[in-house]
Write a structure and sequence with these properties.
The protein is mainly alpha-helical. It folds into two domains: 35 residues; 33 residues, no CATH class. It is elongated, with a radius of gyration of 19 Å.
């Protein structure tokens, strides 16, 4: 019982640390800038590149495009 609790605690700690620090590392590694426009805004053509109105639409698109095998 103690071994599984220790593994669970270590796992939660690693998940927390990853969540806390990975964003900053990714920003530096891929030169992410909040001011940079996304392709949906930059190349807006009304057909292929259309900015989503809110996060719910993006969530629905993600789920509907997932293929189930």
């Amino acid at each position: 019982m103690m071994n599984s609790l220790l593994i669970g605690a270590i796992t939660l700690l690693l998940l927390f640390l990853s969540y806390r620090f990975y964003g900053r590392i990714a920003e530096r590694l891929w030169q992410i800038s909040p001011e940079r426009k996304t392709p949906a805004i930059e190349k807006k053509d009304g057909v292929d590149y259309i900015p989503a109105k809110n996060w719910l639409i993006l969530f629905g698109h993600q789920l509907s495009s997932a293929s189930i095998s």
